[in-house]
Amino acid sequence: MQAFFHFVTHEWYYFTPLALMSLTAVTLVIWRILLNFDARTNMAEFLPRFQDKLDKEGPDAALAFCRSQKGMIARKLFVAGLETRQQGTAAMRRAMANVIELEILPDLNFLLPPILALAKIATMVGLFFTVISMINTFNSIQEAATKGNASGVTTQAGAIGLALFATAMGLMTAIPLVFTHVLFKDWIANYELKMKSAAQKLLVLVQNYKGPMGRPNAAPTGAAPVGAGS
Q1: Using one digit for the tens of pLDDT, what is the confidence trace for 28-79?
Q2: Please, are residues 127 and 170 in contact by the beta-carbon 8 Å criterion?
Q3: In this structure, is residue 117 part of a structural domain?
Q4: Is residue 221 a part of any domain in this protein?
Q5: For residue 53, which of 70, 66, 39, 35 has the smallest C-alpha distance?
Q6: What share of residues in the chain are helix, strand, coil (percent, to 5)?
Q7: What is the pLDDT of residues 86-140, one digit of tens each?
Q8: Range of the domain at 143
Q9: Is 58 within a domain?
Q10: Which of 117, 123, 149, 151 has the greatest number of CB atoms lying within 10 Å of its CB?
Q11: Which among 47, 4, 30, 26 is positioned nearest to 199, based on CA atoms?
Q12: Spatial contact of 78 and 198, defined as CB atoms under 8 Å apart
């Protein structure tokens, strides 16, 4: 602990950039987690309410209901499908597939490239600072040895351990970031499957919807899975 404190106070020009990188990494991860929470839709709660709204008040009321909800499935996916319902289920399928590919997935991948870039850079920056510090240390050792100052050689040799703190800090930033990035990508893959399943459920609900006269909604049938093509 004393050695680390010495590194912070006496080699602050190495510590400060590494600490700023760690702070930036924490900020990006927390920001992305908050965005993921905002993107979630509780389908077990939302879908029965949506179906009840659709059956009792019609598609327009269901559309307005979706626009007022939180989560990307309700606010973006279902809205895109309902807005094109008059053109048939094929148009709904294309609209929802486009929203998934062009709007929702880019939003879910927001901040992931900077997180991965920071994870890769942190290790290299830490190693770079370590190399520079060790070069200076070995130069000081050589000068002390040339002058026959044995105590100076011993003192400078201890600085090698301090130089390794830079690499350690880089790894402490990079390792959690890489792990977090993998978890975020896995969450997005699972969320994409959830969106496609929800889109299929919306197509079924619209097909089975009965209008004011109790007749099925006049929309073409034969909807293929969302995302299977345009």
Answers
A1: 999 999 999 999 999 999 999 999 999 999 999 999 999 999 899 999 999 9
A2: yes
A3: yes
A4: no
A5: 66
A6: 85, 0, 15
A7: 999 999 999 999 999 999 999 999 999 999 999 999 999 988 888 887 887 777 7
A8: 2-208
A9: yes
A10: 123
A11: 47
A12: yes
The answer to whether residue 76 is domain-embedded is yes
- CA end-to-end distance (rounded Å), the chain: 60
Q: Tokens 């000068």: give the residue.
A: 143
According to the 3-state scheme, what is the secondary structure of 162-214?
HHHHHHHHHHHHHHHHHHHHHHHHHHHHHHHHHHHHHHHHHHHHHHHCECCCC
| CA–CA dist 130, 134 (Å, integer) | 6
Query: Does residue 217 contact residue 92 with C-beta atoms inside 8 Å?
Result: no
Q: How far apart are CA 150 and CA 22, in angstroms?
A: 38
Give the integer Cα–Cα distance in Å for 172 and 11: 18
- How many structural domains does the chain have? 1
Q: Model pTM?
A: 0.80
Residue 63 gets the label, from left (phi > 0), alpha (psi -120 to 50) or beta, of: alpha
Residue with tokens 């279902």: 78
